[in-house]
Design a protein that fits this description.
By secondary structure, this protein is α+β, with helices and mostly antiparallel strands. Helices cover 40% and strands 13% of the residues. Bound molecules: iron/sulfur cluster (2 copies). One iron/sulfur cluster is lined by residues 31-33, 36-39, 113, 133-135.
């Protein structure tokens, strides 16, 4: 049976969920990289790292490549949007042993994870994602305004990549 504290917590989560911001009290998250690179790896199968033309240009500049040369090698078209390519094992093409090799110019969705709309939909989806990301629940508290900020950046990124 739930004790008074967890009952109160459950009531708070339910109330915030009804209010549309179930994470009102903030959430704990701290990426465990470089010890973990699960969300960049092929562990979850094929994935997509959506990016805009501006982001392609920023990565090309970072790598010292011409835009066309960069896109031919590192970008694939998926319907009307564009994603980074993957290695044969489904790792992101830019994942190296010590982590992301384009970290300063990584695309928006890499910056905003795990504060994505599908993950932030409800406590249940957040808890489900925690089974795949050891950073969820770690020791850094992220307040609701920052979560909202990350969500907005992610949504804007999705709009600009054409996938939403
Ligand atoms: S799965 Fe989570 S902890 Fe691991 S690299 Fe990705 S964000 Fe960081
Ligand atoms: S660009 Fe970097 S952060 Fe994004 S998925 Fe690839 S390796 Fe991970």
């Amino acid at each position: 049976m739930a004790d008074g504290k967890s009952k109160a917590e459950a009531a708070r989560l339910l109330r915030d969920k009804r209010a549309g911001r179930w994470y009102e009290a903030g959430l704990n998250f701290r990426c465990q990289a470089p010890g973990c690179s699960d969300c960049c790896s092929g562990k979850r199968g094929e994935g997509y790292v959506w990016l805009t033309a501006d982001e392609m240009q920023a990565i090309a500049d970072f790598l010292g490549l011409e835009f066309d040369k960069f896109t031919r090698k590192y970008v694939r078209q998926v319907d009307y949007a564009f994603s980074l390519t993957e290695k044969p094992n489904n790792d992101c093409i830019f994942l190296k042993d010590d982590g992301c090799s384009i970290y300063p110019v990584r695309p928006t969705q890499c910056r905003t994870y795990p504060f994505w709309p599908n993950i932030m939909r409800a406590p249940e989806t957040w808890a489900k994602e925690a089974q795949q990301c050891p950073g969820i629940g770690a020791d850094t508290h992220v307040d609701a305004d920052e979560i909202e900020n990350q969500l907005e950046q992610d949504l804007e990124g999705r709009r600009r990549t054409g996938i939403q």
